[in-house]
Structures are given as C-alpha cells and as structure tokens.
Amino acid sequence: MMVYKLKMLPHCSLLLMLCVARLISTSSALPFEQRGFWDFAMDSMDSLDSGGMMAMMRDEEGGSGREEIPPPHTPTCPFGCQCHLRVVQCSDLGLTEVPKNIPLDTKFLDLQNNRIPELKENDFKGLTNLYGLSLRNNIISKVHPRTFVPLKRMQKLYFSKNLLTTVPQNLPASLVEIRIHENRIKKVAAGAFAGLGNMNCIEMGANPIQNSGFEPGAFKGLKLNYLRISESKLTGVPKDLPDSLNELHLDHNQIQAVELEDLRRYKNLHRLGLGYNHIRNIENGSLSFLPMLRELHLDNNRLTRVPRGLPDMKYLQVVYLHSNAIDQVAVDDFCPRGFGMKRTFYNGISLFSNPVHYWEVEPAAFRCVGNRLAIQFGNYKK
C-alpha cells in the first residue's frame, strides 16, 4: 500500500502544475481596484483599434450623424464685479456708468461707492427679477424718467449720498423701502410717490428741504409705517404726512414749537422723534392726539418744564427730556392720579443735563415707573 502512494505522488504534482499553467494562460487580470469615471472612459478609448479610431476621426471631420448638444448657458458677470447666488457686487470699482451684461436673474445689485453721474433709460433693461438695488455714495444727479420701468419686482432702493435734487420719477409700484437721505432735495412735488401703495419706509433725512418744499399731496396715497426727515431745515411739523405712520423722526431740525393741530393726523404713532430742535413750547393738548404713543424723544431742546399731557398717555413707556432747561418736576407731571389709568409703566425717563435737582423732586412723581433705575437724572452742567 505504501508503494502505491509513493507512485501516485509524481502524477498528482504533474496534474497540479498543469492546472496552474492553464489558469495563467487564460487570465492575466490583476486584483480589483476602485476606478473613476474617466478611467472607464479611457478603457473605452483603449479598446478601439486603430481602424475604429480613424473612423471616428473621419466622422468628426465630415460631420457626425448625431446632433450636437450645445453647452448649458452660463450667465456672464460684468468685468471686475463678483457674482454669486444671484447677487452682483460691483461696489468700490470707480465705475462711471452702470455695467453691461448684468445677469438677468440678478436679485440684488450693489453699485455703491462708485462715480456714476447719471442713470440712463436702459441701464437696468431686462432685470425683471431684481429685488434690491444699492446706488449709495455715487454722484448721481440725473435719472431718466424710464430708468426704473423694467424693475417690476424691486422692493428696496438705496439712493443715499448722491446729488439728487428731486425724487426720481416712475418708481416701481412694488417698492417697499426707499432711502434717499444725504442728497440735495429741496422740493417734493405733489404726486412724487403716486402709485406706491406698497411703500412702507421712506428715509429722506439730511436734505436741505424746508416746510414749504413739500407741496400739498406730496405723500398722497401712501400707507407708510416709517418716515424720517431729520437733519433738514424744517421749522415746524410738516402738514399732510401719511396718517398711517407708526414712526416719525424729525430730529436735528429747526422746529421751535409744537402747536395744537400739528399732531392731529397721527393717531397711530408709536414713536415720535423731535430731539435736537429749538422747541421751547409744546401747546397744551397737542399730545392728546397721540393715544398709542410708546416713545417720545424731546431731548436737546429748550423746554423749561415737562410737557403737559404725559399722564394721560396710557401706553407711553419712554420719555427723553435730557439736555433741556427744565428746572422743576411736579408730582403729577408723569403719572395720572387715578389708580389703573395707565396701562403700562415707564421703563425709561431721562432728565439729566437739566437744571432741576433730583433731591427737589418728590418720589411720588415717579410712582408709575417700573424700576427706579429707569429714571436718569445725572448732574447738570451749565
């Protein structure tokens, strides 16, 4: 039996070697290796014989039977600008005109801090999707009457720090906010904001406009929430402002008094700014037309006493009276006598920089103040 096994060993070895040789001759594959898309593309190219390659080259020269697929359209970006996510930023480039080739799907266009002197009729042609436009800090003095006609969806227009002398014409009906402060506007004509029923905010401070510069009907049809005409040349509260206003800021003017009829229209006001004027007197009863007022700024004026009517303002919470000439505070100047008549407590009363001494004021004068820290007296300096 042992002899038979020894005789069989050479035959088994021979058979094993023949099998291995057979495997080597039929397959030369290497171990699996992860490959990318372009690797497979190159494999396809390698599999073509020289005749197939030559046939492909002849097809390209003579024109392939297949229809060519054009490359997808890529919006251009104006030279020097940055375009990203439909925002086109062309600020601080020293531009002297609105650039061409602005992508038509642009939502916000930033042209601030340039040297653009005028806006032409077709500067924004095709930009029907534009939401916001910033022209701040240029030298624009001329605007073509049809410049803004294509901008059917624009809601925000920032036009401050230019050389405008009038409100631009034909503003988009979709406009919600316009900021035209720090220009040279001296007149607002009747109907200047006609058709702007969606307008919510107008900032037009720092223009050399006087009370006579507002023609009757200048704000007709507007349902504004916010209006600022600060740092101008007003000598009184303008008449015929929108009666929908929640905030009216007339700070840094030359207003000398608040008369009885000045505030009659503004029953919806929550905040009134009259600081940094020359106000000496607020006529008794004039504040009674502001039943919803929350915040009143009368700082840096020439008042000699606390305005009458504050105790009757049920929702008033903040009163700025600092930097005046107030020399006394009576016990009923701020708070009503009856319990529960005031709906909200004061959370801010400023009286510093007045000649009144805090130790001369009865504590009961502030009985409707929520926190004693809300009262600011400070020291008076002549």
Keywords:
single chain, 382 residues, alpha/beta, 14-stranded mixed sheet, 3 helices, 13% strand, elongated
Describe the protein.
Helices cover 13% and strands 13% of the residues. The chain has 382 residues and is of the alpha/beta class. A hairpin with a 2-residue loop joins β1 and β2. The longest helix has 25 residues. The protein is elongated. The N and C termini lie far apart (131 Å).
In short:
With 382 residues, this protein is an alpha/beta fold. 13% of the residues lie in helices and 13% in strands.
Spatial sequence of strands, sheet with the most strands: 1-2-3-5-7-8-9-10-11-13-15-16-17-18
Structural class: alpha/beta
Low-confidence stretches: 1-70
- State the oligomer: single chain
Radius of gyration: 39 Å
Number of helices: 3
Number of beta-strand segments? 18
Beta percentage is: 5-15%
Mean pLDDT: 84
Specify the biggest β-sheet.
Answer: 14 strands, mixed
Please render the helix and strand layout as text.
Elements: H1 2-26, H2 37-47, H3 50-62, E1 82-84, E2 87-89, E3 108-110, E4 118-119, E5 132-134, E6 142-143, E7 156-158, E8 177-179, E9 201-203, E10 226-228, E11 247-249, E12 257-258, E13 271-273, E14 281-282, E15 295-297, E16 318-320, E17 348-350, E18 375-376
Parallel strand pairs: 2-3, 3-5, 4-6, 5-7, 7-8, 8-9, 9-10, 10-11, 11-13, 12-14, 13-15, 15-16, 16-17, 17-18
Antiparallel strand pairs: 1-2
